[in-house]
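Ticket #4471: structure output looks truncated?

Reporter: J.K.
Steps to reproduce: submitted the chain below (741 residues) through the standard prediction queue, then opened the result file.
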Amino acid sequence: MLGNILSKLKVLLVTPPFTQLNTAYPATAYLKGFLNSIGIETQQIDLSIEVVLDIFNKSGLEEILHHVSIDETDLSSNALHILANQDRYIATIDAVISFLQNKNPTLAHSINTGKYLPQASRFAEIGDLEWAFGAMGIHDKARHLATLFLEDLGDFITEVIDPDFGFSRYAERLGRTATHFDELYAHLKQDDSLIISKMKKILSSKIDVSKPDLVCITIPFPGNVFAAFKCGQLIKSCFPKINITIGGGYVNTELRKVYDRRVFEFVDFITLDDGEAPLQHLIEYLQGQRTKDTLKRTFLLAHQSVTYINNSTQLDIPQREVGTPDYTDLKINEYLSVIEVVNPMHRLWSDGWWNKLTLAHGCYWGKCSFCDVTLDYIKRYEPLSASLLCDRIEAIIIQTGHTGFHFVDEAAPPALLRDLSIEILRRKLSVTWWANIRFEKSFTSDLCRLLSAAGCIAFSGGLEVASDRLLAKMKKGVTVSQVSQVTKAMSDAGIMVHAYLMYGFPTQTAQETIDSLEMVRQMFEEGIIQSGFWHLFAMTAHSPVGIAPHEYGVSHNGPDFGGFAENDYYHDDPNGTMHEKFSRGLKVSLFNFMQGLGFDYTVNEWFDFKTPKTTVQPDTIQHYIKTQLAYPAIRDNDKAIWLGGRPISISELKIKKASKHPQNLPYTAIDFVNYQTTYSLMMEKNDAEWWLSMCEKFDDDISIPIREMKESYENATNKKWDQWINSEVFNQLRQHGLLYV
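Returned output as attached by the reporter:
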């Protein structure tokens, strides 16, 4: 529905419930940054946090708890327990929410007494909190307990008020493998639940204030689909002149062939892939500056038929021109920092506000056979410059007041991470960041030390099935040995590691599953990974496996496509095993490993059925990491970085006869100071003079090309470069922070 031609169009960007409690999903911030750059007036709202805060306050909780009578007989003992203590829940909820927003820190002491919060079933899972938080982890321990308090209330809502409720998803089952629109449509026609009613009230209020002409709803996950269509339902009913478009991760992967006309009872347009260019085209169309037949990657209803239009000759917006993500309008200081799992790496997904930023469009590898490598968001690789990224980092810090960043690339490129880290150090930025990566050999010990110095605290990456046969079949481009060595380098540099783990890949046997678990057990025991998550392989329509399953020894067996979503495929695996039965044992063992427990169990003990014994030797991972080179060979195109601090004093030395140093050569002792300590190094005088000149260069520019350094050394000392890099002094400098990356 076009409506009147709009001379000055206003846009409202919406994230429907639910995503995360601790930080905003970044899609709307990305689009707002772009729309700013082309002069479009834009506002955004994250209904995830808005709805949660509307529920979890004194009046909201009163409404929910008083909605149910304690006399009802079909309630669980847990729900009855919460109802019996409802006055205490209502009395404490505002203070707990304020505490989780980091506004009420002294409440931690009361929470930790164990007498402040009412406790239901979630508290039965506490375990040893002294092990997790120690004697001084007051606030973290209290945040974990406050999180359990919220989860108890969430369980109550799911049981008694709305079975579709979840803190990070809503009615997810309706969005999963939704090949037909029938079930979703039927639920959309039902009366609104209390949660949906609250969502609609908040959205309606926002629309009344912002008065948009176009509402753009992002749908990142299956757990946002139902709420997104409920948003569209409200707008169609109460604000019929407003145009509605949907896009986002779920749309890009699932709705590429949609033809069910009923979808367009809730939306006017569906756009695919990167949203900037299609949205700009759509705005121009709504403003009368473009014809309908020149839209870009857009579905709409024309003559009562779903029509896909992609006739624009304009290319996508280059990543360097999409603008800086803009987080204004969001309630940045009202998000909740929760600790669901006490593991220090795992908590990053739920604890603290993380500014989201993308370093490069697409994946530089783009070969993994289980991944959607045929879609634009993966296959079109376009990196940004380190300088532009740092400009955006500085701008976002000013916007949000937060210096933590999560780089949300499919796989952040090691070379770009190197350049970005050098630029962070050059600008003297104080940032904390983590990223998704591939465990490739480019992550040397030196590179990991550099990344850590620039603020990196953690990496997540795909170990998948820890089997070299299956890794090769997946085209991961890594081996278990290589992953072990890379994660060792990361852990030694103080960078935590999370491993994405997979079971059920085509032709995987029970033996390979057990052997993979043993590899994972050893990695945890060696301390080279700190966190992980097992997921069952899913065949998708846009992956090499989904496109050519016969090449992987499997075949499709449904589901039938009925005009709505197409992504997940069912498949037969005649050469594999019954993978689902391994699920519980894999997850329980991993939960224990993440807490430092269960290493003395045989991997077979985690399963309640007979499994084959592992063929992996008990010291396999230990052997892999012992063969790692401490310092890889220095290449001419490397850059040198000095993290060892500044020289603070210089003194000449006379060498005594008993000294191990060559006689009759003048020596110089140099004292250095870094962030932690002072230390001294002694070297030949001409080497010392040259090294001091290098320190001055490092002060000016952080990094020095190896070719330049090599030429400088040979000219200054009349010695060969090999003499320097094979010397004891050079080895000492390496230990104290001389890196080659």
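Triage note (M.O.): checked the attachment and the full token line is present. DSSP finds 28 helices and 25 strands in the chain.
Status: closed, working as intended.
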